[in-house]
Amino acid sequence: MSNYAENREVNKPAKGLVSGVSWQEIVAFLSLFVIMSLLYGMPRFIRGDVPPLYLRETAVDCLFMFISCIPPWWLHFRKLAHWPLKKLFWLHLPTSMIYYASWLLLYDIYNPLTGKPVITFTQVLLNAGPNLLFYVQIFSFLHIYHFFREREQQLKKEKELSSLAYNSEINALKAQIQPHFLFNTLNSISASVPPEQETTRELIAKLADTFRYALYVSQHEWVPLYEEAAFINTILELENRRFGKRLQFEIGSLKETGNVIVPSMLLQPLVENAIRHGIAPSLHGGKIEVDFERVDNKLKITVSDTGIGYPGNLPEILSAKGVGLRNARQRLELLFNETLYIERNHPGGMIFYFYIPIQYHVGNNSHNN
């Protein structure tokens, strides 16, 4: 089973030392330690009583505190950053002990190397108060920093979502231009088809269903997964008439996930990409599979094909394949802060998958064609 960290080739983080850590954050982290160390030594600086040995020991102590803070920082702001603030607060009880134990361990290594005595039990007790106070101050500043940083990112997302909603509204207005004329025309064509061509009549009906659903979702941002899956099934049935045996498809079971609410038209660009760039160029065609899987409290949706695949570098695929995939990735990031993962299928083809939080279907959100 795939997990959230499976394939990072196409989902590269911002430039930094490690995933998700920018140079600006590292500099801010170090600057905070330097400033705090200078503040603690300010009385001696004011008196002018600053021997070279004191400066060296202050620098060493600052370095050790910085190193000791890395494990708690990683837990609070990376590994468990999704935890509620209350749980993170209680987590500081054990992580502060980890911080102090790491600080003592570093001095147990450093002192013998520099000819100094090992820290005694009395010194351990005497240093506990100042070190834990320092820990509280450092992580208070870090929590404030991350609060404002997340707030800034949230405001940016809200602005982008507002712009996206405006564009969607314009597109919805365009889609509503004389829709009844379109449906009536299709019905007229269907009625004129001779009875012996029932297959053609069915195709026209399915085509009308796709137009009707597209009009519906232009006014509804969220739909139950079973409706989105039915729409995808209709598209694939129509395409199957065009490609014949060159296109096979399979829609996964919706027994456990059918009533989950999902953004409308989120799967369509992925399926369209699989048809256009995977199946159509292949002489022998291939198979498209759409799978739905519950992973903890998230829904994993996978769209895979066994077509010709993509010969280039995976990070380039989002720019090389048009706006559909980019729009899908943008919606995932803005709505859920999730990523569109891309892998190569074997022996050929591509795999696209993503995770979204599970939100259950509410009766008044349903749509029946």
TrEMBL record:
A Pfam family per the record: HATPase_c
KW Transmembrane (keyword) present: yes
Highest taxon in the source lineage: Bacteria
InterPro entries: Bact_2-comp_sensor_kinase, HATPase_C_sf, HATPase_dom, His_kinase_dom, Sig_transdc_His_kin_internal
Ranges that cross the membrane: 21-42, 54-76, 88-110, 130-148
GO cellular component: membrane
UniProt entry keywords in alphabetical sequence: Kinase, Membrane, Transferase, Transmembrane, Transmembrane helix
GO molecular function annotations of the record: phosphorelay sensor kinase activity
Histidine kinase domain: residues covered: 266-360
The protein, known as: Sensor histidine kinase
